[in-house]
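Final report, results section. Input specification for complex C-07:
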Amino acid sequence: MAEMVVEASMALALGAKLCRPKVVSMYPITPQTHIVERLADFISNGELDAEMIHAESEHSAMAAMIGAAATGVRTYTATCSQGFALMFELLPIMAGNRLPGVMSVANRALSAPINIWNDHSDAVSARDQGWIQIYCESTQEAIDTTIQLYKVSEDHNVLLPAMVCIDGFTLSHVCERAIVPEQGEVDEFLPAFKPFVTLDPDKPVSIGPISFPNTYMEFKKQQHDAIMGALPIIQKVHDEYAKKFGRAYGNGLIEEYRMKDAERAIIGMGTLCGTGRIAVDELRAKGEKVGMIKLRSLRPFPVKELQKIAKNLKGLSVIDRHVSMGFEGPLCTDVRSALYGSGIEVNGFIAGLGGRDITVDRLQKALLSTKTHKQGEWLL
Amino acid sequence: MAKKENSKPAEKMVFNVGAVIYEPGSTIKNKTGGWRAMKPKIDQAKCIKCGICWANCPDMSVKKNEKGEFEIDYDYCKGCGICANECPVKAILMEIEKK
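Structure output:
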């Protein structure tokens, strides 16, 4: 293993490289560009034996990834924001065809107004498309999650593509200490890709055929069952990784911080949880019984695990870095639904859109809101 | 139409992961002729055997028989009418499909 100070984009590229993808099809977009550049470097200097496809758009990058995955090789791509939106049309196709692969998303706001900074509106908008989505808090977590998700995605009980979501700039451009595993260790952990189907002229198959109204629902149910069934597999792979590499993130699906005797808590995803830890520590020092829940896996959503962690809470404040226009934060909707009937007061807050800082005091305001039964609001 | 294939009761169907079809040639089973509202009819007396209908058919449903005549394969012809439109001697007429 090598311990280094590394930019998260570089770390993700290193993480992807360690998984030995055979096809990397990408199109650069801020703030994901560094990932593309680093991988291009690795391929051009011979460190990574892969086909680099410089696609003419994100739509083509995803189309190439699907085609490559159908030939039975390990694939990788990365994108964000408008590029992610352009890719959207193909996301359910990769998932519906049950083709594994990993994509990094350097989460960024969607236009208009034009904004290149971080929030979760790109990936969260695509949560229903059958991709596994894990949100990371640190560079280390991003590397570790990339390696874990290849294993989950390629598991023959899952066979679904997966996204490693990192906050654009807030994480993607931050340099921090991280441990990069050795190639040999990763090879031991992640075996060579065994596809369940391959495009082969000698053994012809049809991938992506039409399904009439009398069969479509069965296929979608099968896919839904597979992503729900991925919950224990994400945990199992995470635990296996933790045992081998010595790093764990809660139970792999959800992480708790100072939740033991907590009466109130916040729940959020990604880097805001780093700030959340400080917000909790400060309030704890003042005698408030507060804690934090960091959600790693947005899809599949760990309902039972959340219920278990939250069961002794009086109030839970949800911090959404995205708003479902016309309703509320989508994470808030999920959390409310998961905790329905529990009596826990769930408050929804919209924060950090388009790169707005999520500060300690904003999170503390959200944390204590349930104490005075204040409504959720936009943390402007 | 593909009625035979599609009217199978759900419990007897095989749902391969990812809807992958492992047996090639499955499209042949889907007889799309049932989609037809208009039916092309070739008047062999007028036909000059130029093959323009054969070349233009998007479904490869115009076929040449042993006598060198062009025939419509009604199992797959969807009745789009391109053949009738392209025929230089107006030897193909579109009739209302009667079932």
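The interface with chain B takes residues 96-99, 159, 196-197, 204-209, 211-212, 214-215, 218-219, 222 of chain A (CB under 8 Å). Residues 125 and 324 of chain A are 8 Å apart (CA to CA). This concludes the modelling results for the funded period.
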